[in-house]
C-alpha cells in the first residue's frame, strides 16, 4: 500500500536578505543526519527484508486470515509505508532544495529505484485484499474494533477492485512506474533549467513569473514576452512530455477499463464524479459574476481600454509595494491563528522555531511552495520561496495550514492520516481566510481595505475560476490525445479555448500566451488534481460562512474534522456543520461569498 509521497524540497545554511531579515532553513536531521547516515542504510536494509518477509508470510494466504491476523498484516504494511515514506521524504526534500545538484538528483533516483524494487513483492497485497468477500470482511470488522478502524483505507483500496488487472500485469505496471516518473523528472529539470533575460538580467522561472506582479507595467510586459519566448523555444519538449504522459495514462486506463480519464483521480480523492461535475458547472456558470465582473473593475482601476495577460496579476495603482519582512509575516499569521484558537497557535509555533520551514529563494531550489507531511512519527516540512510580498504572507498562512492539519491528523497513523485531496486544502485555505480577515481588521484606510479585498478576490479567482479552467483544459487535452498525437499548436489551441471563456471580455491575449500551459506542474505530476483547489476554496467559503453565522462551538468541530485525516468521507466530515457537498446549492454558498466581496468593491467605486 506504499504511496510515493507528494514530492517534497535543500540548500546552503543561513540565507539572510537585507530587507527580509533572517529566513529560516530546513533542518532535515529529524529524518536522517545525512545521505550516508548509518540509520538510513539500516532502514533501507530493514525495508528490503521486511518486504520480502511480508510477501513470504502473506502471499496467497490473505483469504485464510482471521480478524487478528488481518490486523497484524495491515500493521506490518503500515510500518513498511512509514519507513519507505521516511526515506523518500528525506531524498525528495534534499533534492527540492537544490534540483540542479547532480549528487542529490542521483541520490533521489537511487532511493526511488531501491524502494520500487523492494516493494514490488507487495503488489499481491492490494490484489488479494480486493478478492476478499465483503461479507467475510464485515464479519471481521464486527469482531475487531481495531481492524474496523482501517475500514476507510480498505474501502478506498477496494474502490479500485473493478479496475484491477491480473497479478502479473499489476506487478509489471508497478515496475514500469519508474519510467513514467522519468518523464516527470524531465519536466522538472527542464523547468528548473530554463533561463530568462529581462532588462539585461538573467533569472529563473520563479523570479520571472514574479515580475508579472510588478507595479511597473513595462516590466510586466517584458516578463510576459520573455516567458513566451522561452516557452516557445522549449515547446516541443513540453508537448512531448504531455503527449507521452497522457498516452501512458490512456493505455493504463484502457487496460483497467476506467470509464473516463478523470475516474482514477475521483477514486483516489474519494469523491463522486457528480459532486465534481456540480462544482464545475456552478463555477463555469458563475464566470460572469466572478471573474468577468472583477476584471472589468480592474481594467478601470488600471485605466486601460483592454487588459493584457500581463495585467491579470498586476498590483493596483493605489497599492503600496511595501516589503513584508519575515518576522512581520510570522507575527501576522501567528496572531491570526492564535486569535481563532490558541491551540492553533501552539501547533504552528514549532514550524518557525525548529527548522521545519525553508523560506528563501535560492539558485537551483524548486519553485513554488508546499507542505510535505513526511511520516506520522516525524513532522511536516514547509517550503516557500519568500520574497516579502503580501501574497507571500498568504502563502505562508496557506502552507502552515497544511502543516497544522498534517500534525493533527498524524495520530491516525500512516494509512489513515492522509486526507483525500478534496479535503486536503481545507486547513490551508481556512488559514489564509483567518489571516486575510485579521489583516482586513487592521486596515486603517479605505485604500488599504480596497487593496486587501481586491487581493483576496484575485486569489479566489485564481483558485476557483482559473483552476476549473485548468481542469477543463486537461479534460480537453486527454480527450484529444485519444484521437492521436497532439502538435504543440493543437495543445495551444485547447489552452486558448478555456482562457477567454474564464477570464472574460476585458482581456486581449498577446501572441505567445498560447504556450503558457507549458509550465504548470500539476498537469504532469498529478492529472486532474487542479479541481481540488476549487473544491477546497468553495468548501472553506461555505465553512467560513457557517463560522460567521454560528461561531459557538465551531473550533472544536473544526479540530475534530482536521484530526480525522482520511478516516472519514467528506459527507461525514461536513455533516456536523450542516453542509453537504453533493448539494448544488452548497457550491453556490461558497461562490456567493466571492461575489459578495466583489459587491463590496463595486460599492466602494461610489
UniProtKB/TrEMBL annotation:
GO terms for biological process: peptide metabolic process; proteolysis. Pfam families: Peptidase_M3 (PF01432), Peptidase_M3_N (PF08439). It comes from the Bacteria. GO terms for molecular function: metal ion binding; metalloendopeptidase activity. Residues 128-196 form the Oligopeptidase F N-terminal domain. Binds 1 zinc ion. Residues 269-591 form the Peptidase M3A/M3B catalytic domain. The keyword Zinc applies. Its cofactor is Zn(2+). Keywords: Hydrolase, Metal-binding, Metalloprotease, Protease, Zinc. InterPro entries: OligopepF_N_dom, OligoPept_F_C, Pept_M3A_M3B, Pept_M3A_M3B_dom, Pept_M3B_clade3. Belongs to the peptidase M3 family. PANTHER family: OLIGOENDOPEPTIDASE F, PROTEASE M3 THIMET OLIGOPEPTIDASE-RELATED. This is Oligoendopeptidase F. It comes from Roseovarius pacificus.
Amino acid at each position: 500500500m506504499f504511496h510515493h509521497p507528494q514530492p517534497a524540497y535543500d540548500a546552503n545554511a543561513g540565507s539572510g536578505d537585507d530587507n527580509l531579515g533572517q529566513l529560516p532553513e530546513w533542518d532535515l536531521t529529524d529524518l536522517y543526519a545525512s545521505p550516508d547516515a548509518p540509520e538510513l542504510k539500516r532502514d533501507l536494509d530493514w525495508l528490503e527484508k521486511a518486504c520480502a518477509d511480508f510477501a513470504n508470510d502473506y502471499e496467497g494466504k490473505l483469504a485464510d486470515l482471521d480478524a487478528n491476523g488481518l490486523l497484524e498484516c495491515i500493521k506490518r504494511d503500515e510500518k513498511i509505508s512509514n519507513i519507505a515514506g521516511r526515506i523518500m521524504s528525506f531524498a525528495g526534500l534534499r533534492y527540492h532544495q537544490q534540483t540542479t545538484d547532480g549528487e542529490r538528483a542521483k541520490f533521489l533516483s537511487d532511493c526511488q529505484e531501491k524502494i520500487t524494487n523492494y516493494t514490488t513483492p507487495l503488489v499481491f497485497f492490494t490484489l488479494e485484499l480486493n478478492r476478499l468477500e465483503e461479507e467475510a470482511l464485515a464479519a471481521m470488522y464486527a469482531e475487531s474494533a481495531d481492524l474496523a478502524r482501517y475500514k476507510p483505507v480498505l474501502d478506498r483500496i477496494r474502490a479500485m477492485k473493478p479496475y484491477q488487472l491480473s497479478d502479473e500485469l499489476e506487478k509489471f505496471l508497478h515496475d514500469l512506474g519508474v519510467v513514467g516518473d522519468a518523464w516527470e523528472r524531465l519536466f522538472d529539470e527542464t523547468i528548473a533549467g530554463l533561463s530568462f533575460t529581462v532588462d539585461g538580467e538573467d533569472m529563473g522561472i520563479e523570479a520571472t513569473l514574479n515580475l508579472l506582479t510588478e507595479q511597473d507595467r513595462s516590466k510586466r510586459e517584458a516578463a510576459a514576452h520573455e516567458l513566451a519566448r522561452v516557452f516557445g523555444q522549449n515547446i516541443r519538449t513540453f508537448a512531448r512530455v504531455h503527449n507521452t504522459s497522457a498516452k501512458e495514462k490512456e493505455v493504463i486506463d484502457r487496460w483497467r477499463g476506467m470509464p473516463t480519464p478523470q475516474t482514477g483521480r475521483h477514486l483516489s480523492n474519494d469523491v463522486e464524479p457528480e459532486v465534481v461535475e456540480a462544482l464545475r458547472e456552478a463555477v463555469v456558470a458563475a464566470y460572469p459574476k466572478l471573474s468577468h465582473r472583477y476584471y472589468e473593475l480592474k481594467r478601470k482601476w488600471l485605466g486601460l481600454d483592454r487588459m493584457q495577460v500581463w495585467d491579470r496579476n498586476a498590483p493596483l495603482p493605489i497599492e503600496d509595494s511595501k516589503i513584508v519582512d519575515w518576522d512581520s509575516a510570522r507575527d501576522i499569521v501567528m496572531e491570526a491563528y492564535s486569535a481563532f484558537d490558541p491551540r492553533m497557535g501552539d501547533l504552528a509555533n514549532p514550524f518557525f522555531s525548529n527548522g521545519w520551514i525553508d523560506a528563501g529563494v535560492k539558485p537551483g531550489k524548486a519553485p513554488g511552495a508546499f507542505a510535505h507531511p513526511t511520516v506520522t512519527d516525524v513532522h511536516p516540512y514547509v517550503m516557500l520561496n519568500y520574497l516579502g510580498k503580501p501574497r507571500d504572507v498568504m502563502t505562508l498562512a496557506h502552507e502552515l495550514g497544511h502543516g497544522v492539519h498534517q500534525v493533527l491528523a498524524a495520530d491516525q497513523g500512516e494509512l489513515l492520516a492522509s486526507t483525500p485531496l478534496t479535503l486536503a486544502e481545507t486547513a490551508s485555505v481556512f488559514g489564509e481566510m483567518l489571516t486575510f480577515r485579521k489583516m482586513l481588521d487592521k486596515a486603517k484606510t479605505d485604500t488599504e481595505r480596497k487593496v486587501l479585498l481586491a487581493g483576496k478576490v484575485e486569489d479566489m479567482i485564481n483558485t476557483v475560476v482559473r483552476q476549473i479552467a485548468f481542469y477543463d483544459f486537461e479534460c480537453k487535452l486527454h480527450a484529444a490525445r485519444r484521437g492521436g498525437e497532439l502538435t504543440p499548436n493543437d495543445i495551444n489551441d485547447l489552452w486558448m479555448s478555456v482562457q477567454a471563456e474564464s477570464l472574460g471580455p476585458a482581456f486581449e491575449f498577446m501572441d505567445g500566451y498560447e504556450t503558457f500551459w507549458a509550465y504548470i506542474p500539476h498537469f504532469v505530476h498529478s492529472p486532474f488534481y487542479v479541481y481540488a483547489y476549487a473544491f477546497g476554496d468553495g468548501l472553506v467559503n461555505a465553512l467560513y460562512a457557517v463560522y460567521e453565522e454560528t461561531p459557538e462551538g465551531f473550533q472544536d468541530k473544526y479540530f475534530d474534522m482536521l484530526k480525522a485525516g482520511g478516516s472519514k468521507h467528506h459527507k461525514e466530515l461536513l455533516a456536523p456543520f450542516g453542509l453537504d457537498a453533493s448539494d448544488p446549492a452548497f457550491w453556490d454558498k461558497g461562490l456567493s461569498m466571492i461575489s459578495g466581496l466583489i459587491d463590496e468593491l463595486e460599492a466602494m467605486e461610489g
